[in-house]
Design a protein that fits this description.
five-stranded mixed sheet; 26% helix; Acyl_CoA_acyltransferase
């Protein structure tokens, strides 16, 4: 099974799809040069497959590629950054 991560800007969320089916999302608010992550959710049907981590990694990689900063209000994204210090420099000061 292959997954795909995309930024659905119209819905203000990153989405992860597994074989074309929406498996989860990470909602955000974009303001100036920051992406404030507010909520992350993986459909229970797709749980236990590492899709949450893949979604967090894909979203943060996109933030980095766009030279933006992350504000991890969402506990899942915050926890992912805590466990993966290579993303710590993306966190906006304050």
């Amino acid at each position: 099974m292959s997954h795909e991560i995309s930024d659905n800007a119209a819905e203000s969320r990153y989405e992860i799809r597994l074989d074309g089916r929406l498996a989860g999302f990470a909602e955000y608010r974009l303001r100036d040069d920051t992406v404030a992550f507010t909520h992350t959710e993986i459909d229970p049907e797709f749980g236990g497959r590492g899709l949450g981590s893949a979604l967090a990694r894909g979203a943060l990689d996109d933030v980095r590629s766009r030279s933006l900063r992350a504000v991890p209000h969402c506990s899942f994204i915050k926890g992912y950054i805590d466990r993966h210090p290579e993303y710590a420099e993306l966190v906006a000061a304050g």
